[in-house]
Amino acid sequence: MLKILGIDKEKCIKCEKCIASCTVELFSVERKDNMEKEIHFEDPLRFCFRCAHCIAICPTEAILYEGADEVYNFKEAKNPSKLLSYEDFMKFSRSRRSTRIFKQKPLSEEEITQILEAMRFSPSASNRQNRYYIVLSKKEEIDFLSDKVATLMVRAKKYLKLKYLVIPFTSGLLRKRLLSPKTKISLDRFFDRRSKGVDQIFFNAPCVIILHAPPYSKMTASDAGIAITHGMLAAHSMGLGTCWIGFAQEYLWRSKKTRKQLGIPKNHNVHGVFIIGHPEQEFLRAPPRREINLNWKK
Ligand SMILES: Cc1cc2nc3c(=O)[nH]c(=O)nc-3n(C[C@H](O)[C@H](O)[C@H](O)COP(=O)(O)O)c2cc1C
Fold first, then answer.
1. Residue nearest (by alpha carbon) to ligand 1 atom 25
2. Residue whose CA is at the smallest distance from ligand 1 atom 28
3. Does 145 lie in the same domain as 135?
4. DSSP 3-state of 134
C-alpha cells in the first residue's frame, strides 16, 4: 500500500504544489536567510491518508514513495474532460436503467473483475477504502440467499394476517404498510410469481455482489453506495445490466446467521447488494425524474 517517504531534493523545484494539495498539512516550506527555500515532508503522527494527491500533482516527480506505481501508470489523469464530455456523460448516465430481466448466460471472470476494479477506484471518506466484497456467481448460492431474503415476505404475510392485533404496537412506515391495501396485493403477487419459478429478489441474475464493512463512521454506508454506483456504471459501459437489491441488503442487515453463512465477519454489516447480468430487455427511452429539490443560497 502507498507510503510517502519524503522529497527528492534534487528533483524538487519548490513550486509548493504539494503544500497546497495536502489536506493534512504534511508538507512545509523552510525559508532560509539566503532567500533559498526547502520543502519538507514530515508525518510522525501518521496523518497521511494516502490520497496520493502530492504524487499526482508534482510536476517533477520529486515525491518519494513506496507502492504508488498505479499513480504513474495512469496517464489519462491529465485532461479528464477530454475523455468524456458532459453531454456524453449525461447521455450515458441517463441511459442506465435497473435491469430485472436477464439472459441465462453467466458473466465471465474477466467481466466481474473489471466491475470490481471500477469499484476499487471509487472515492471514500478519508480514502479509507473500508469496503469488503462478496461475489456470488453460482446459481445454488444465489438461490440460497434469495430463499433467505424471501423469508422477509413470509414474515410480512404473517404480520398482515394478525394486523389488527399488531397495529396498536406499530408506528411509522411499518404501520403505513400494514394498513395499505397495496401490501397484500404485492405479497400475493410475489408468492404467485415465486411459485412459478420467477425470482423476484435477484431476478435470476447470474451474479450478485455484496458490500460489507466494519462500522467506522457515518460515512461507511456512503462509501459503499459510491462504490456500487461506480460498479453499476462500469457494467453499463460494458453492455451489462444491474439493479441494486435493497431487499437483500435489508435482510442481511438483520440476519446475523446468514451473514455468518456468507463468511461476513461478526462486526461487519452489509451496506449494499446489487445484481449484474446480460440484459434480456432493451430500453428505448429514459423516464423523467422529479424536479430537483433545491435550496441554492445565492
Ligand atoms: C438503494 C436502492 C435499493 C433498491 N432496491 C431495489 C430492490 O430491492 N428491488 C428492485 O427491484 N429494485 C431496487 N432498486 C431499484 C430502484 O427501484 C430503481 O433504481 C428506481 O426505480 C429508478 O429506476 P432506474 O434505476 O431504472 O433508473 C433499488 C435502488 C436503490 C438505489
1. 98
2. 244
3. no
4. strand
Please give the distance, rounded to the nearest whole angstrom, from the Cα atom of residue 12 to the centre of ligand 1.
50
13-17, 38-42, 92-96, 195-199: least confident range: 195-199
Q: Is residue 82 part of a domain?
A: no
Residue 58 pLDDT more than 90?
A: yes
| 68 and 188 together in one domain | no
28 lines ligand 1 (CB under 6 A): no
Task: Give the distance (Å) from ligand 1 centre to CA of residue 247.
Answer: 10
Nearest Cα residue to 133 out of 120, 149, 123: 120
Which residue range is the domain that position 67 belongs to?
Answer: 3-77
pLDDT attached to residue 254: 93
The answer on 104 and 38 residing in a single domain is no
Domain at 16, CATH number: 3.30.70.20
Residues 29-45, mean pLDDT to the nearest whole number: 92
From the CA of 95, how far away is ligand 1's center (Å)?
A: 15
Q: What is the pTM of this model?
A: 0.91
SS3 content of the chain, % helix, strand, coil (to 5): 45, 15, 40
CA distance 210 to 207: 10
| Residues 18-35 pLDDT 10s | 999 999 999 999 998 888
186, three cell numbers:
404485492
Shared domain for 188 and 49, answered yes or no, is no
Note whether 19 and 61 are same-domain residues.
yes
Res 174: pLDDT: 81
